[in-house]
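Technical note accompanying the year-one report. For the benefit of new consortium partners, we illustrate the data format agreed upon in the data management plan: each record pairs a sequence with a structure-token string. No post-processing was applied to the example shown here.
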Amino acid sequence: MPYLLALTRYSYTSNKVFFECSFDESKFTTSIWYDDINLNQLEFEYGKELVDKLIFHIAAFEINKLCSLKPDQISFGPLSRFCTSAFKILWIKVFKEVWGQWRYENNLPNYAGPEFLDSALETPAISAKTGDVGVLAFCGGGKDSLVVLKLLESSDENYSSLAYSHSIYGEPQKQHTLIDGLLDTCSPARRHKQWVIEDFTTSPVLKLGNPNNVKTLCAAETPASIFAALPLVLAFGYSYLVLGHEKSADFGNMVWDKTGETINHQWGKSYEAELLLNSYIKANLIDNVQVGSILKPIHDTLIFGLLGSHEKSIVHTHSCNINKPWCKRCAKCAYVWINYMAFLPIDLVDQMFGENLLNVEDNQIWFKQMLGLDLHTPFECVGQPEEAQIAFELAKLKGIKGKAMDVYTANFSEIDFAPLIDRYLAVDEHHSALPSELLKKPLSQMYKVSAKVRLDLIRLLLN
């Protein structure tokens, strides 16, 4: 008998969306709480059908994490009337790309996802009202979020922020407190908050509810967060959903020999995903909102260079997905630490981390992978091997020593840094889904800092 993933029920109150789904004999729930919108008011202004349509998309991109259990079929039950051909094309593409890593980890090269049991006719997009603030900037609390907010502020762009907590990252209030600490050093017009509370990723499902014996779980977190932000667009009239996804996210971790495809842990943050989601939302949901990243024109190397004038804010950043703010034992912590050491004052980084991560045994595999010395780069949100090599060389010139530095020195005695400086400090102004009028001033700031960092790196690395 085929395994069915099904949306079994949903509901919403003034500030909460709830839905339940089932797989085999197990049921799981998700609640998304909003701190300052009234969904009943949105129903009054735009109609129940539109609110249901948004909830369908929110639910669909939240429950697709259950596809990690390898269902044969999928049905959206009480919201199946929104399962159109355009939606299926989007959902299948997201599944193929985001779950590429999962298929590799579970040796499932031929699994294309569940069969849809629902079908529906297309319905047109609507136009949202226009509000007094145009930009809603996503803020996860990391260095990318900080750079985005500061670029908006230096451009005199009025913006609001959106922070969300998720069950998988631990206690919700701790997550919001950490992000609030960063936002206290910035100037958003409004601070929106979401709480995502779910019981799938935090459950023992791999041990106790796993009939297909898969090894890992996966979730389309970025697409899910974009759809979950759309009620705020209706409520406050935002014209732009601004992300902090860099050009480095466009490149994969490896090429899988069994399929020939590029596996990219960060595909959901890629330019391809940005264009796909943006066009779908405008054509099918809200036609006067634009989704895109201000940082998409630049690589991580320049982003770390842009941090230099924001030292008071940097101490409030956090990027760890294991134990916030920093577990100091994961690929993300290791990557951010070596780049902070490369581009920021050592005493500032020591204040944040308190130890030399180069000597931590758990981190040796991460440093090896990020330098390009293993089968693939870490399945995390990190840059390309050449960006890590630049960071290691800059840290070495500062006198930073350790076990992983010895590995770097032994394997990279001669690097031609000139082409790497050109590549990773370049600004590709056409590489963003955002309009030129919003990007003009941020791009000017990027060019200015790029020129300064370029001169610094030439002086340090080419002499």
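Partners are asked to follow this layout when depositing records. The longest strand covers residues 4-12.
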